[in-house]
Amino acid sequence: MKLLATRRLVLGAAAVALAALSAIPAMAADSPAQLIQGVADEVIQIVKQAKGPDREAAIQRILTTHFDMEFMGRAALGTSWPQQWDVSTPPERGRYLTAVASAEAHAYSERFGQYAGQTLAVGRVVPRPNGVSLVESKLNQSEGQPISIQWEVRDTGQGLRITDVKVEGVSMVMTRRSDFNSYIQGHGGQVEALIQELEKRAKN
Amino acid sequence: MSKGMFEAMTFSVRRTVVVATATAALLGGCAMHDTGATEVWDPIEVPNRFIFSINRAVDIIAIRPVAVVYRDWMPVPAKKGIHNVLENLGEPVTMINEVVQGDPSRAATTLARFLVNSTLGLAGLFDVATSLGLTKTKEGAGNTVGYYAGVEPENGGFYLVLPLAGPSNARDAAGLMADYAVDPFRILTYALNIDAIYQGTRYGMTVVDIRTRTMFALDDLEKNSVDYYAALRSAYTQQRADLIRQKREKTDSRGELDRRDNLALVR
Fold first, then answer.
1. In CATH, what number is assigned to the domain containing residue A55?
2. Count of domains in chain A?
3. Nearest residue to B98 via CA among B114, B75, B81
4. Domain range enclosing A75
5. Residues of B in contact with A171 (CB under 8 A)
6. Are A169 and B261 within 8 A, CB to CB?
7. Predicted pLDDT of residue A68
8. Between B32 and B196, where is the model more confident?
9. Residue A151 CB: number of other CB atoms within 10 A?
10. What confidence tens digit (pLDDT) does each residue in B97-116 have?
11. How far B190 CA sits from the closest chain A CA (Å)?
């Protein structure tokens, strides 16, 4: 019993430390490169300290604070994004964005589950005239070649946000868009079918 | 493939891209990517999906389990050595492609790599060349065609799922055949009448090596997609396009950036 209580205490302390850690870099991110480095440091902390649902929750918090999830969700639907979602906000819109965010959080926390001491080295930043900055980085592994990761960062009203991640040239958003649109087309062009599928997956 | 066909393809693709981005801008309000093509051209999707499902069955039953055992039980130096040998066997084809791409200095480096690794590296077992500063590249005829074709590298002709080999497209499948045809090792082993055993071993090992290396990414993609076929189709196309684009940018970085900005203006 005592052991259990101690464990709970330690976990609690870890959670507090985690919250404190993730709060600091959020304010420090005033350049795209700093944003990426900050996110990478945070993620490494989370992966080292939290497991399972805790990790997923922490990852989800990073996604909501540093990623423009609405923008990404919209981009992932592409032309399937219903026009009326721009004028009004029906419940489906919220359900869709929530479902995408939790699907991403789940995916990322699983991906990072394989963490084995990799480090992220942020390289050059290329500002594009359309307001997007492309931040190049290398994920250095203990064995094998480094993996190139390119981050798309744009200035939303509330500061810099990540809008896409490209791993070895493969954009997460573009892949999702193909995936989602193909699914929607296969289900009578209904976005509702996709939302239900994503919600169903979030439960398992 | 004739030059006229390429020009026709260029024109139709540019038009498609412009129309697609304009439509996306009107409908969705934001199409935002630097990559030109929005969707992969897949006119034979039904047969492709059929081959894809057979490939998956074969993979689950026969290939993936072998790759898992190989990944978990083979000592790391052995895996590395086998990978190096296979990569070394591919160097001559890379060199030929680099010559065709009009990059003789890079082709010379590849040749040097091949000679160093085949001798000092004990038939390619050790990648000595990299430690001597001779960096590795890998070029296939698919990349060469993509390099010269005046189209967005996302456009490799129609998408094609090959039996066993998996995702491909018209450009890369033709490239595979061309690479196979010019491969000096294939020609040599054929002349020596040992091609059956040579190819069986080489391609058998290549399948296991590649499957082991792609395991993490493919498992991830499969788990985190609602339509695995479509997700893989997109990921494959983007990755190939990225490799070709890198090659183009190396020779003409300024032009490539300008082109992207023009594309950004269209949006």
1. 3.10.450.710
2. 1
3. B114
4. 5-201
5. 33, 35, 238
6. no
7. 87
8. B196
9. 23
10. 999 988 888 888 899 999 99
11. 34
